[in-house]
Specification:
Helices cover 0% and strands 54% of the residues. The protein contains no helices and 19 strands. The N terminus is likely disordered.
Length: 219
């Protein structure tokens, strides 16, 4: 998915649309993955700037030179790595600016950083909230993670962009202990039918705490 500064067809393509880095230990660096920028126009294209951003600056790219000129059908490979610090869930995106507009492309799925066994400790969260979903974007299913600060009943529903509820994942009848939990959504509604591609929202109610998350289903 992308937001663009072009009113017409994009003069270049970006593949893949998102990257998934899997489980990477804190303070470790993942193996690089490549993103290919290709000029699909009939005229040369100048890439003036590109960069990647993520939670706690966890994503970085190389090479770093800008002012790259691509002739028609030429391409440029950009390597991206993931180096989590202290966040549990990390998401990033890429900004690409050319001489004929710009594009923000959400190239990265959610990556999970894990603590090594030597550093692992049992931590009880002090608040009930959502911790995001993984992977995101997803197909066909995604795992929604959440924390519970006290023993509470939890309700989680999925809504479409029109605000219509499409699936109840937790109906509030189950009591959860304080700690970290998750629930899986398989991309189906309450009738068991597959839903279409697009943006969906999930809302959690736990005691007096309410939180909302956003996810993208791609098919």
């Amino acid at each position: 998915m992308a937001r663009t500064g072009f009113e017409n067809t994009l003069p270049f393509s970006v593949e893949p649309k998102y990257l998934y880095f899997g489980n990477i230990e804190i303070n470790q660096i993942s193996a690089p993955q490549s993103v290919r920028l290709k000029n699909i126009d009939t005229e040369k294209l100048e890439i003036l700037y590109f960069g990647v951003w993520g939670d706690e600056s966890a994503f970085f790219h190389y090479p770093t030179e800008t002012n790259v000129i691509l002739e028609p059908n030429e391409y440029f490979d950009l390597n991206v790595s993931f180096a989590p610090r202290d966040e549990v869930l990390n998401e990033g995106f890429m900004w690409i600016e050319t001489d004929r507009g710009w594009i923000v492309s959400y190239l990265f799925g959610t990556a999970i950083s894990i603590v090594s066994e030597d550093d692992a400790v049992d931590v009880i969260p002090n608040v009930s909230t959502l911790l995001g979903n993984f992977p995101n974007p997803f197909n066909p299913e995604t795992t929604i993670q959440f924390s519970i600060g006290n023993v509470e009943n939890v309700e989680i529903n999925v809504y479409n962009v029109r605000g219509q509820r499409v699936r109840t994942l937790l109906d509030g009848s189950k009591e959860f202990e304080a700690g970290y939990h998750d629930v899986i959504w398989n991309g189906r509604d309450d009738r068991g039918q597959s839903v279409g591609s697009g943006v969906y929202f999930y809302r959690m109610v736990a005691g007096e705490n309410t939180a909302v998350g956003r996810m993208l289903l791609l098919k």
